[in-house]
Amino acid sequence: MKKVLILGGSFNPIHKSHLGIAKMIYERLNECGATLDEVWLMPAAQNPHNSIYDMADYQHRFAMCQIQSQGLK
Questions:
Q1: Model pTM score
Q2: For the chain, what is the domain count?
Q3: Domain residues for 21?
C-alpha cells in the first residue's frame, strides 16, 4: 500500500511556501520512519475566508499545482 501525504489548500495561487511546507512535512515524516511514497497537492474547491469570486477557477489552480510540482523530489 502506498503512503501518501495529502496537502490541501486553496493554492490561489500556489507558491514556494506551499511547496516548502510539503517538503518539510515529507522530510520530517521520513526522519521519524514514516517513509512516504508520494505527496499530493489538493486544491480546495473554496476558501472559507474568501469569496468564490476572488478565486481562480479550480481547473486553473489544479493546473498551477501540477506545473509548480513538476520535478520535485
A1: 0.81
A2: 1
A3: 4-69
